[in-house]
Write a structure and sequence with these properties.
Radius of gyration: 27 Å
Oligomer: single chain
Number of helices: 5
Helix content: 25-40%
Number of domains: 3
Shape: flat
Length: about 260
């Protein structure tokens, strides 16, 4: 009876269908409410009703952040990294309509690490000898498959990493292609393939952009927090501590760095 009894969503109060329940630590969550959570969030079963409500409030407030977001650079292919360098923010999504998708908008300063991971799958191609046995070619021949992932570690209350594939489909290299990619020493190097190099370049560009933006944001924060030194104003001669715009607090003259 209890197993098949009707459940209600602890968030919206709606009735949950037989296969629609998402268990929480102290309640239940319907499919519709679960769809509003961050796509990077993966700890739902260990979350309380109060924590889910808090995240949904954040996700609703995030809509305004998306509205205010103005991309200055877009990096990637099917999954793209949007940078708003003027506001010091970024987001990651495959959606064309940002307002509908409501991707999480994060500050550059929230990035704690970023790296490119390349997954390789190698399968040996076999042949049949005169006795009908499957044996290796000499030298061995392989098919290769590559996928390229970006992993961004972030300081967020709701998730700690954003991992996504940047290639829309795997880079497949057959034995004939691989044999044409031999280096000077004669050894096959599938990483010389043009598609491999393009996605590797794309991944490194994303890592470099986010790493640089993160460092710039932290340097700016450190400079803003540094104690201001009193100087003599070259215009009015007063001893002054420059304001946030680098101007004399008495006459308004631009003191500069």
């Amino acid at each position: 009876m209890g197993l098949f009894s009707k459940k209600t969503c602890s968030i919206c109060g709606g009735e949950i269908g037989l296969l629609g329940n998402r268990k929480l630590e102290d309640g239940n969550l319907c499919k519709a409410c679960a769809s509003k959570l961050s796509p990077w969030f993966d700890d739902r079963r260990h979350s309380t009703v109060a924590e889910i409500r808090e995240q949904l409030d954040y996700r609703e407030a995030n809509r305004q952040a998306v509205e205010d977001f103005h991309a200055t650079r877009v990096l990637g292919e099917s999954m793209r990294v949007y940078l708003d360098e003027d506001a010091g923010r970024f987001l990651v999504t495959s959606a064309r309509n940002l307002r509908e998708d409501n991707p999480d908008v994060l500050d550059f300063s929230q990035v704690t690490g970023c790296r490119l991971d390349v997954d390789e799958d190698r399968d040996e191609l076999m042949r049949e000898n005169s006795e009908g046995e499957r044996v290796s070619y000499n030298p061995p021949r392989y098919t290769y498959s590559y996928d390229f992932y970006i992993e961004i570690q972030v300081n967020s209350p709701y998730f700690s990493r954003m991992r996504f594939r940047i290639n829309s489909r795997s880079v497949e290299i057959d034995p004939n292609e691989a044999r044409g990619l031999a280096g000077r020493a004669g050894a096959v190097d599938p990483r010389r393939h043009v598609d491999f190099q393009e996605y590797e370049r794309m991944g490194k560009e994303i890592v470099a952009a986010l790493s640089s933006a993160r460092q710039d944001a932290r340097d700016a924060a450190a400079a803003a927090a540094a104690p201001k030194m009193a100087v003599t104003c070259p215009y009015c001669g007063a001893t002054t501590t420059p304001d946030a715009n680098g101007r004399c607090e008495y006459c308004g003259g631009a003191i500069g760095a």
